[in-house]
Amino acid sequence: MLAPLHGITNYVFRNTLASHVAGIDAAIAPFLPVMPVEQIKTKSWKDILPENNTQWETMPQLMGNVVSHCVDTAQALADLGYPSVNWNLGCPMNQIVRRQRGCGLMPYPELIEDVLKTMGRKNRPLSLKIRMGLHHRKEGRAIIEMSNDYPLDFIIIHPRLGEWQYKGTPDLEEFAYLLSHSQHRIIYNGDINTVEDFNSLQRHFPNTHDWMIGRGLLRNPFLAEEIKGGIANPDLRKARFHAYYSGLITAIRENKGERSLLPALKEMWHYFSAFWCFSDKELYDLLRINDLCLFQDYVNKHTEIH
After folding, report:
1. pTM for the structure as a whole
2. Which of 34, 131, 215, 233 is the right S-S partner for 69, CB 3.0 to 4.6 Å?
3. In the prediction, which pLDDT does 123 show?
4. Contact 171, 204 (CB under 8 A)
């Protein structure tokens, strides 16, 4: 499953990736802020309109903490053809946490339970994306225990505390604890960047069959198919990357416009640079370029297939 990365894994990115790689079974779209019914304009939800999501099974994700707004937004998504939604309780970014959203909700299990109760009464299928907690592991444990009383499609667990953001090492012992105490389907998420990473995790958790990958698939778009025994030839990988990258440029131009192209490419090259083994200086030099033609010249020069 492709993880949502806000500002990157939009439908343009997802559709292009799906056209060039194999091995990914589904995706969760970047979050939608929940809102009351009178403010909802589904035509503006371009990223999750069904006509823009024909490649993979895609699930919308909610961000918010007002029970009625969660219900209203889930109903609007159901009317679009999405019977189930994911609720983001894992985003660790400071501006989200300060507003008691994302991982900022994890210290308040009573608020989370209010949403689970109400969504259950309204017959709105729901899944969760959580961390071990915001500040303490007891926060994640409390949510896992409480969630056993409610019907959920699945729970995605990223085994870091929110205050760590993306630093430090995932706590596999705590993931094992949460896995063993949940009655729901659990999806592992966090630091799957190579086939070796995946194989090591699979050895740790042989009964876990569902995995979510985000940054690893940006760093190596072929990671999922390599995990499933796909391509290995280095030149073939590089040639396929060039085709994928060209497809991204065309799709961004067509859907977002020329002015959006360079900022979008700069954001992606934070990750793409790993595929090409850029040095820190090479990436720094690339991201300083503010002319699209010069930017592309630099990319072409540093990604030649010899």
Report:
1. 0.94
2. 34
3. 85
4. no
